[in-house]
Input
Amino acid sequence: MTSLRMNPLRQHSLKPGTRRSGGLAEQRRAMYWLVIPCLRTFACVALAALFTCTSTARADVFADGDQVMLQAGPYVVHWNNSTDHNDWPWLVGVEWEAASRLEIGAAFFRNSFYQTSTYVYAGKRWFLHSGNQGLYAKLTGGPLYGYREPYESKIPVNFNGLGLVVLPAIGYQYQRANAQLVLLGSAGVMWTFGYDFWK
Output
């Protein structure tokens, strides 16, 4: 009797949490390998452009009051404390903010189910007092890719791993540094820390 063996390359491409369910699963894996590189390329190009811009004349690129922030999110507190949850997403991201406090950014992290994820967003920040330091509120929204089966239902708007989210946050700015508490809907909250490396 001949034994059926899976192609090693195909077996390697299977991600944790993905069912071998035939055509649909194949399509979703194909979409994963298409969308993730595109989002990563977009974010990397944006990051490279920001670094390049900082070395050029300020008047040619940014207006007065614009700034670029690097951020990290090392820890998530889940409302439902489960050993299956990943509490250490190790988020890294870059964010550009205009003098009007409008902003765009991109972040990479591992979600609560250990899946590599990408968040590309736009938003705005409001300081609760006059000036550009102290307490502030923030709201961002945009496409999020990474919550794939069997965890697609963990975010309300999601199609084959590509979803749309809106994330409110509250934070504190002190000189170039800030700390934020980001509300992740009914899942929990994430601590993030940022530094304005160019302003």
Notes: The chain has one domain: 30-198. Residues 30-198 form a domain with the Porin fold (CATH 2.40.160.20). The radius of gyration is 19 Å.
